[in-house]
Amino acid sequence: xxxDRPKIPAAxxxxxxxxxxxxxxxxxxxxxxxxxxxxxxxxxxxxKHEFSNMIVLCANCHARKTAGNIDRKSIHLYKANLSVLNxxxxxxxxxxxxxxxxxxxxxxxxxxxxxxxQLWYLLRDEMLExxxxxxxxxxxxxxxxxxxxxxxxxxxxxVSKWMAARPVDGAELELNED
Length: 178
Prior knowledge:
This protein is of the alpha+beta class.
């Protein structure tokens, strides 16, 4: 019965919202409202609220999951990929990856200069590389006013896996086939 189900603790809700960036956890959706808290393995089966078994979905994606249009294995992969993204990359890095996912024909991104430190892990993981586009470079105190970054083949593959609910590098997941 519904009255037997305890409320999801506020701290757990906050953790889940932060994990998903206060948006639907499905990267091809990313809707911001309304959001719902979903048990990956159904509540009726597990009968507890645990971070590892919960994910934030928009109302539409939650209904699609409930109807079987988004399978449980995909939801597990979205959750695992979120963990890799959140533990490895900063906000700007995730936004750069998301931008390249929304613009599959784009290869180069021009940003204000001096952002290498905020893009450190994408550069270090060889998903992004700096490119010299030539021309007159304006610099302020030795920092270029603008810099260009190119997504690499490795970066494009990572984005493709992330969007398709396939394990990204580091997303170790053992699942039984549903």
